[in-house]
Amino acid sequence: MSLRNRSSDFGVAQSDQSLTVSSTAVALTIPSATYSAMLTNGAEPVRLRWGTPTASVGHYLAPYTTVELFTDMGDVKLIRVGASDSVVFATYYGPS
After folding, report:
1. Does any domain span residue 5?
2. pLDDT grade for 96, boundaries at 50, 70 and 90
3. Number of domains making up the chain
4. What is the pLDDT of residues 1-10, one digit of tens each?
5. CA dist 51 to 54, 57, 88, Å?
6. How many CA atoms lie within 13 A of 83 on its CB side?
7. What residue numbers bound the domain in which 42 lies?
8. CATH number for 36
9. What's the pLDDT at 41?
10. How many other CB atoms are there within 10 angstroms of residue 37's CB atom?
11. Residue 6 falls within a domain, yes or no?
12. Both ends of the chain: CA-CA distance in Å?
């Protein structure tokens, strides 16, 4: 497996966020001048969608998986899949 993006594609780490994902869709809090974000899901499955996800609609993120975001991050929302909340950790990258 090879990396598809260079570290310079991310920018420089600007800030972090821990987001509790529950039964109501929640959005990320994107800092200004953000180029990209890396999200790591916690102990429970969640769904991610550009728009409003449901427990059965959206990209499925298994526990402890990571996803990289590069476009339209302000439209991204997450929701839990099962009966338990998950904590998603986000790192936001931007200019140096």
Report:
1. no
2. confident
3. 1
4. 444 565 566 7
5. 10, 10, 18
6. 0
7. 14-94
8. 2.60.120.770
9. 98
10. 22
11. no
12. 29
In a domain, 29, yes or no: yes
Which 3-state string (H, E, C) describes 7-76?
HHHHCEEEEEEEEEECCCCEECCCCCCCCEEEEECCCCCEEEEECCCCCCCCEEECCCCEEEECCCHHHE
What residue type is assigned to position 53 of the chain? P
The residues that bridge with 60 in the sheet, in sequence order, are 47
Residue 1 in domain? no
Structure tokens at 10: 């991310």
Written as one letter, the residue type at 19 is L
- Asked whether the predicted pLDDT for residue 25 surpasses 90, the reply is yes
Q: Running DSSP on this structure, what letter comes out for residue 4?
A: S
Query: Which of residues 78 and 5 earns the better pLDDT score?
Result: 78
